[in-house]
Amino acid sequence: MKKRTLGRLAALILAVALLAGTLAGCSHEIDYSRADVTPSDAWYVTDEAGVLSADTKAWLAALGDDLYHNVEECDLVVVTVGFTGNKSTEDFAYDLFNDWQIGNEGTNRGVLLLLVVGAEDYWCVQGAGLETRLPTSSISRILNQYLEPDFAVGNYDAGVRATAAALYDELAASF
Q1: pLDDT digit string (tens) for 98-133?
Q2: CA–CA separation, 105 vs 101, rounded Å?
Q3: Which of 76, 99, 123, 124 has its CB surrounded by the most CB atoms within 10 Å?
Q4: How far is the C-alpha of 138 from the C-alpha of 125, rounded, in Å?
């Protein structure tokens, strides 16, 4: 019991020292970027933040598979993370989109919906092959209408489902 208390005390002292160094303007930065985020086996949904239900993940996988096979090989990928490290949400989304090569290489018809729950932020990016069929103005409208209300209250499951369905409908109608 005494060893356990000493271990917790040591961890608390270390945490306070790290926080004090950060608050004092410590000159060295730690890069907490999530370069290790890799696609899940389901490809169309990777829930690193652990905020989506099993039902929603299965639904997103089925939706993504349906979109790919029935709407001109479009990819719709949803990713949740806690934080993006030293990158902005937008930069992280673009890097992830390109690193994962979302969308058919020849047509570049991919969409990434990224939720950064720890930073209370999100971003959606489309490939160049979808810019006329799913313009940024449509993405903004969909995010504001379908994601923002649920995201603001932490109901990520409902927001992601509504947004993914709206993105799917928009893409299906454009082909």
Answers
A1: 999 999 888 999 999 999 999 999 999 999 999 999
A2: 7
A3: 76
A4: 11
User: Which candidate, 90, 70, 105, 107, places its Cα nearest to that of 143?
Assistant: 90
Give CA–CA dist 48/93, Å, rounded: 14
Angle 121-80-123 (CA atoms, 0-180°, nearest 5)?
Answer: 40
> Could you tell me the two tokens for 108?
């570049």
22-50 confidence digits (pLDDT tens): 334 433 343 444 456 999 999 999 999 99
For 116, how many CA atoms within 13 A lie in the half-sphere containing its CB?
A: 21
Per the listing, tokens 């060893």 go with: 3
DSSP 8-state class, residue 117: G
Distance between CA atoms of residues 160 and 143, nearest Å: 10
Total Cβ atoms within 10 A of residue 133: 17
